[in-house]
Amino acid sequence: MPVTEFRWPVRVYYEDTDSGGVVYYANYLRYMERARTEWMRALGFEQDALIRDTGILFAVRSASLEYLRPARFNDRLEVSVRLCERRRASLVFEQVVSREGDAGRPLCTGSFRIACLDAALFRSRPIPEFILKEIPHVD
User: Fold this and answer.
1) 22, 77, 79, 105: least CB-packed within 10 angstroms?
2) 121-124: which pairs have CB atoms within 8 A and are 24 or more residues apart?
3) Structural domain of 33
4) Active-site residue flag, 102
């Protein structure tokens, strides 16, 4: 069954923070990347196995983030993943990082275009049908 809504928990560690005691901006990209990876895993796909067995990989083609409020050391966060667009060789996701239990007040939002690439050539390649079967259709 396709996973249409996905959330992944993240704890803020001391190493995630900057000298001001808030999450360093680049770490939101890491949190969002982990959530997309876990979304793929929930669909039954391991990215290392896709490279090894099918010769494809998924890579960020573009990213846009909005930083709205700071997260701090030891906060429990939740990262949501929502598929917005499904094309022949790419996927577009919208993601939100919020404090656990407070999804209505985002800390950071992001939009990502993820391209399916030939792992050897790093050129665009259609997403294989067996993967598309598991990815939900976008209305």
Assistant:
1) 105
2) 122/59, 124/89, 124/90
3) 6-132
4) no
Q: Of 125, 105, 7, which is closest to residue 57 (Cα–Cα)? A: 125
Q: Which residue type, as a one-letter code, is found at position 25? A: Y
pTM: 0.93
Query: What length does the chain have?
Result: 139
Of 18, 75, 102, 118, catalytic: 18
Structural domain tally of the chain? 1
Single-letter code of the amino acid located at 4:
T
Whether the Cβ atoms of residue 126 and residue 89 lie closer than 8 Å to each other:
yes
Largest pairwise CA distance in the chain: 47
pLDDT in tens, 13-41: 999 999 999 999 999 999 999 999 999 99
Residue 16: CB partners within 8 Å, gap ≥ 6? 23, 24, 27, 73
Which CATH number goes with the domain that contains 90? 3.10.129.10
